[in-house]
User: Fold this.
Amino acid sequence: MKRSTPRRGFLARLRTDKDGEWAPFVLPALFVSVLLTVYPVGSLVWTSLTNIGPDGVQFVGFANYVELFQMPRFARILGNTIVWTLLTTLGALILGCVAAVALEHRAVVLPGVWRAILLLPWIVPQVASATTWKWFYSSEFGMLNHMLMTVGIIDAPVAWLSSALVVLPAVALVQIWSTFPFVMLMVSAGLQSVDESVLEAARLSGAGPWQEFRDIVVPSLRGVLFIVSLVIVVWALNSFTIIWVITQGGPAGRSSIFSIYVYESFRNFDLHRSAAASVVLLVASLIFAIAYMARLRRQS
Assistant:
């Protein structure tokens, strides 16, 4: 029996290619990749390490980062970012998993139609959906207050977007609404890989629906849930459109996160501090992106 030779990696094949036939095909793409990724990131890092002085651009090291961490509202922005990320990630995961499991139930008629309907929040442009939710939350003529007062849950209109206590959860709900369909789609695909024979064996042994879900379905979805969680976290860290359209980070910075601060600093021509905040956000996103790539590498 002929023994199969191990597959060589792409870089190994390039090193052993004596004719260099790969160069015309690889070098243009490599040049474009460097131009579109490495140069902008390098320029961003350099900008965060410089400042405008009397003699023009001067290298100041980590002074912009020190000023960023010492500014009075840094703690609030950091706290808002953490709360925002936790709320939107957990909310999207829970709602997406519930929707995916519900659509797999035998009692659901036309699951494909319902799945397409539930995908609409993810498809609708964020500017349009955020504007609609802003009207929905309006304290004067919003439908939310009207419905809650009609059923007697509240006695007076609630200022959802101007209350310091509820504005961040209210806006986080919009982010959850727009991202849970992605979780639903990925979990639905993961549910297709669950071995039906294992479920049948569990039923014959007397396991109930909750035991099946806890002991068989959830372990089978760990890989999918891990990757989906990382993607949702990165989306949450870089969220901008929904918050800006609905509250612009207000009131008094109660819904401002790092991405909002980056834009505000850039708009106020504080480019170097904006670059420093962008690098901090980039590093946070890279941590989760590296974990995502490592997971994919282990699965391949």
Q: What stands out?
A: The two ends are 27 Å apart (CA to CA). The longest strand covers residues 50-53. Residues 1-6 have pLDDT under 50 and may be disordered.
